[in-house]
Amino acid sequence: MQIVACGTSYFAGCVARYWIEQLAGLPCQVEIASEFRYRDVAPVKNALFVSISQSGETADTLAALRSLGDEWAGKLAICNVPGSSLTRESDLVLMTQAGPEIGVASTKAFTSQLIALSWLALALKRIHRPDMQAEIELVKGLQALPKQVDDLLTSQVAAIEKMAEAFADRHNALFLGRGPNFPIAMEGALKLKEISYIHAEAYAAGELKHGPLALVDEEMPVVVVAPNDDMVEKLLSNLEEVKARGGRLYVFADESLNLPEDPAVQVVRLPAVPAQWSAIYYTVPLQLLSYYVALLKGTDVDQPRNLAKSVTVE
């Protein structure tokens, strides 16, 4: 599979790569559309081309689709707008059905894209690695997500709003994640940039010692996505590296993790969710963090400066 998208949709594709390769065992590449369209692509014969766009009118994504030869097995569009150019020009369409999203910064469109991509990964698993009992458990995990998110919105909003106070006078932030939650960290950094105008970037936590650790001091908030999955021990080690350099940590963590009390570590403890789908769940508190930081800074949450909802030109 070859996934091509821009911005937030690109991060959804990056999450899907983990799911598709793990569940279905299919090689999956993900590329930014504005890069894909301008290079000489060596396509894998009979690969499925997947384009992701909320509006279906994203200029670079459409240009990438239109540049394809006949080596591809087919063209699948994952989109939120019926009748858009992307849906009309693709062989297959999977509608996200998120409804209109008025704000420029994608929120429900992003989570809906993740849900659609989880369905795609499960459908491919049924073909390539069928296991009905495993599929039942995976579907149960997806079905549980709406209530878990509702509970989050009622029980943790105050804690996230309190955490946001630490960012209001900062100019930079670092986001860390591992596995499928690394793209979620990237999406969290993008949201903070988009609506609060704080410079933020994200790294795979294992890359800390390869450069980003030089930025860490008491003035650099470090946001960490920490579900209880098979990467958690490595992630906790990365947290110690930040603490040892005087960094201040802001951690969204599974409540089962044994995180010691520390004035340099502020934790929002979240209930256990299936590790396979934790990326969908952990998206929401990161969106809320950016929202409350933007409110504190007095920026326009719905209409950030210099941005447009649908990027229809280069």
Keywords:
314 residues; alpha/beta; 10 helices; globular
Tell me about this structure.
The chain contains ten helices and ten strands. It has 314 residues and is an alpha/beta fold. It has a five-stranded parallel beta sheet with strand order 2-1-3-4-5, sandwiched between helices. Strands 7-6-8-9-10 form a five-stranded parallel beta sheet, with helices on both faces. β3 (48-53), α3 (59-66) and β4 (74-79) form a beta-alpha-beta unit. The chain is globular, with a radius of gyration of 19 Å.
Assign a percent range to the helix content.
Answer: 40-55%
**Biggest sheet details:** 5 strands, parallel
| Beta-strand percentage range | 15-25%
Shape annotation: globular
Q: Tell how many strands the DSSP assignment holds.
A: 10
Computed structural class: alpha/beta
C-alpha Rg, in Å? 19 Å
- Could you spell the SSE succession in H and E letters? EHEHEHEHEHHHEHEEHEEH
Mean pLDDT: 93
How many angstroms separate the termini? Answer: 25 Å
The strand order across the widest sheet is: 2-1-3-4-5
Count of individual helical segments: 10
Low-pLDDT regions: none
